[in-house]
Amino acid sequence: MDKERKANLDRALNPKVIAVVGDKKITDYMWLKSVKDAKAKVYSVQIDENDIPGIEEMGIDNRKSISDIPEQVDYAIIAVPRPVLPFILADCIKNNVGAAAAFTSGFAETGEPEGIELQEKIIQMTSEANFNLVGPNCMCMYHAKVGIRNTADQWIGEGGNIGFMSNSGTHATNFVIRARSNGLYPAKSISMGNSISIDQGDWLEYLGDDPDIEVIGMYIEGTRDGRKFFETLREVAQKKPVVIWKGGQTKEGARAAASHTGHLASDMALWDAMIRQTGAIRVDTQDELMDTMKALLMMKPFTGENMGIIAQTGGQSVLVSDAFGSEELKVPALTETTHERLRPIVTVVGGSYKNPLDVSGSLTSVERATEMLNGLHDDPNTDIIVMESSIGFIQRRLEKQGQGLDTLIEGLKSFQESSKKPFGVIATWNQNEGELADFRKKVSDAGIAVFPTFQAGAGAIRKVRDYYRKQETLGTK
Amino acid sequence: MSSFADISSTARAENRVILTEQESKTVLKAINIPITEPVLATNSKEAANISSDMGFPVALKIASQDITHKSDVGGVRLGIDSQEEIAEVFDQMINTVKKEAKGSSIDGITVQPMAPPGGVEVIIGVTRDHQFGPVIMFGLGGIAVEILQDVSFRIAPLTPVDAEEMIKEIKGYKMLTGYRSFKPANMDKLKDLLLKVSDLAMQESEISEMDLNPVFAYENEVVAADARIILTDS
C-alpha cells in the first residue's frame, strides 16, 4: 500500500465527515445508527422518498449525492443495490473520499457471471483511481475511540489495543462484542469482505504499523496474494503477536469458503507451515482466540514450562495436572523450603501442600490464598502460576470471614501486580454457570487472564509460551 | 557444465517439461548438491566398462525422456555386483521396458554408483503453490512419506531456523538421531541441502516441481540418489 493510499485510509478510519449512502428504513437504518455516536459529522445520501423521512427524523442531513455534501467526505459507507455501486464509487473517487466500505454484496462470492463481471468492473475502477475500497460484501470498519462500528451493538471508547481483521463480517462484528465481555479491548475490527482493493496483506501491514495495536487477530479463509501475505506476516509477526484463526480447513469447509467470500480455498498444511515459520499463533476456534489473547495481553511474557498450581479439591488437582501435562507443560515438585512454608497453612486432612496444591478447606480467607500463591511464586521450580477457582467451594469459606468473591478478586489482582511470574485463573464449568459467567467477567475486568476449562487454560498458555520461545529463536525479543 | 537455463531450453525445444534424471542431477550438481552421478551406456559392454571404472555395486536405470516412473516399468535394478550380472540385466531391462512402456524412446541405460548402506532415506521436494509460490517439503522416504504422509512444509525462501525446524517437526525425526545400526544423520549437511533446494526454487521460476527422492543421510554426508525436476507449463 503506497503512502497516499495509507494516508487516505488513515483519514477514513479517523473521519471528520462520514457519508452513509443508501441506508434504509427496512433495515432500521443500521448503518446510520452504527456511526451516530462517532466523533464526526454524519451525512446521509438517499434518493428514495420512502426512506428519507426516517433519516431526517434522526436529525441527519440527507443529500441526493456525495457531490452535494458541502464538506470533504473522509469515510463513505455504501449500502446500495449492486448495479448502483459503480456509480456511487465513481462519485467517491471524484470527491476524493478517503475510503469507501461497501456492505453491498452479490459479486464474485456468488460464483455467477453477473456478479463476477461487476466485481471485475469495480476492481478496474478502484485500481485505476488508486482508491481504497473496503469489501464489497462486508460489515465495514470498527474503530473504538472514534466511534465507527460494524454494528451499533458494539462498545466504543478509549483504550483499545487489539486489531482484528476478518474475511467474515459476522466474525469481525462478534469478535468485538465477545472480546469486551472477556476483558479485552479491541481498537479496530475490519470486515474485509471480498477485499478487492485492500487485500489481506495490506490490512496486516496496516495493523502492524498501527501504534495503538499491541496484538493482531484475524479470521481468514484465504488470500488472493499468498506470497505478499507471507512476506508481510514474516515482518509483522516479529513486531507484535499475530493470532490466526483459519476457516475452511477441511475439504467440506473449503467448499463453504469458496461460496462465502469468493476465495479459492488453500491447503491447511501450507497455512500451518506459514504460521509456524513466521512465528504467528494458530487458533482453531473463537474460544481459543479469546483465551490466547488473554494470555498474551494479561499475563507477563514467559518461556518456561513449570506450572505452580492451586486447586480447590483433589479431583480438580488431578484433572488440572492432566490438562497441563498433555500440552507439554510440567507440574514439578516444589522445594523443601516451600513445603515447610505451605505445610502449616494447607492443614486440612486429605489436602496437599505439594504441587498442585489441593487446598480443600484450607483456603479460608483472601490472605490465606495470597500466602499460598506467594509460596508457589517464590519457589524456584515454578515459572507460571495458576489458580483453579471452584467458586461455590471458595465462597462458602470466605463468607465465614465476611469476605466474598469480590474481595478475592482484589486479592488476586494485588498478587498479580506484585508477581514476577505470569498468573492466570481457571474457573471451570462445574458450578452454577450463571454465577461463573459473572465471576469470570469480573476477573477479566480486573485484568487477570481467566480460562473457562483446564484444557482451554493449558492450551492458551502453551500456545503463548511457544510464541515467546519462537520469538527467542528468531532473535527478535 | 550446463546451467539450468541450457538444460531447460533443451527440454523445451524438445517439447518436454520433465527433465531426465541425468538432467535433473546436472542441475543439482551445479549448485553443489551431492548426487550419485549417472553415466549413460548404450550397450551392455559400455555399461560393464563404466561400472568397473566406478566400482561395484552399481545401479542401472533406464534412460528415457518419456518414462518418469522408471521402477514401474521395470527400469531400475539396484545393487549389481559383477560384470556378468550387468551383461544379463542390461538386455533384460531393455526388453522389459520396451514391453511395459510401448513406444517410449530409449536412450540407453545409466550406470551409477550405489549409495552406501547405513544412510537414512529422506525425501526433499518442491512444489509451486498457486497462492504461496515455491514451497519446500521434507520427510522420511519410503513408507513414511507414502503411507504415513509424515512430512513438513515451509514456504520458500527458507531461513536456517526454518530448515532446522522442518527437519525436527516430522514424527519420525528420531530416526535421524541414530537408532540400531544407523548413525545419527548429519544435521548441518541436511539443513544445507534444504537451503540450497530453497535457493534454487526461488531463483528458477521455471521449476514447477522437484523431487530429490531418495536422499541418503549419513553421519558425514548426504547424497541424492535420484532426482526429478518438472518445469512449468509455459
Question: Mind explaining what this structure looks like?
Answer:
Chain A has 477 residues and is α/β, with parallel strands linked by helices. Chain A has three domains: 137 residues, NAD(P)-binding Rossmann-like Domain (Rossmann fold), CATH 3.40.50; 160 residues, Succinyl-CoA synthetase domains (Rossmann fold); 174 residues, Rossmann fold (3-Layer(aba) Sandwich), CATH 3.40.50.261. In chain A, 44% of the residues lie in helices and 15% in strands. In chain A, the strands form three sheets. Chain A has a six-stranded parallel β-sheet. In chain A, helix 8 links the parallel strand 10 and strand 11. About 3% of the residues of chain A have low confidence. Chain B has 234 residues and is α+β, with helices and mostly antiparallel strands. Chain B has two domains: 78 residues, 2-Layer Sandwich (Dna Ligase, domain 1), CATH 3.30.1490.20; 112 residues, ATP-grasp fold, B domain (D-amino Acid Aminotransferase, Chain A, domain 1, 2-Layer Sandwich), CATH 3.30.470. Helices cover 34% and strands 26% of the residues of chain B. In chain B, helix 3 crosses helix 4 and helix 6 packs across helix 7. The mean pLDDT of chain B is 92. Chains A and B meet through helix 8 and helix 10 of A and strand 7 and helix 6 of B.
